[in-house]
Amino acid sequence: MTKAYSYACGDCEGMEACPASVTAETKDEVWQLMGHHARIAHGENPVDWDQETRDYLDTLIREVDV
After folding, report:
1. Number of alpha carbons in the 13 Å side-chain half-sphere of residue 2
2. What SS3 class is residue 36?
3. Gap between the Cα atoms of 42 and 26, Å rounded
4. DSSP-derived pairing of the beta strands 3-8 and 21-24
5. How far is residue 59 from each of residues 6, 26, 52, 62, measured CA to CA in Å?
6. For residue 17, how many other CB atoms are within 10 A of its CB?
7. Which of 5, 11, 20, 65 is deepest in the core (most CB within 10 A)?
8. Phi-psi region for residue 14, left (φ > 0), alpha (ψ -120 to 50) or beta?
């Protein structure tokens, strides 16, 4: 099995109704996809995320087997 990383938007506090999730080979790819999703689906600009938000989101990225 190969390792990958995954993020489910619905795991984020306040986003429970969002069905989006991403899985990628690296954490960096997941962060890029999370940012893209945040802009399109939620009208957020990831540049505006403070360090506390980034630290929280990082806890929601899980290592998975693919």
Report:
1. 8
2. helix
3. 23
4. antiparallel
5. 11, 15, 11, 8
6. 7
7. 5
8. left
Distance of CA 1 to the CA centre of its chain: 22
Beta strands in the chain (DSSP E): 3-8, 21-24, 62-65
Q: What is the Cα–Cα distance from 29 to 23, expressed in whole angstroms? A: 8
Number of folded domains that form the chain: 1
Q: Are strands 3-8 and 62-65 parallel, antiparallel or unpaired?
A: antiparallel
- For 8-29, how does the pLDDT look when each residue is reduced to its tens digit (9 = 90+)? 999 999 999 999 999 999 999 9
46: its two tokens: 């990831």
Length of the chain measured in residues: 66
Q: Which domain holds residue 60?
A: 3-65
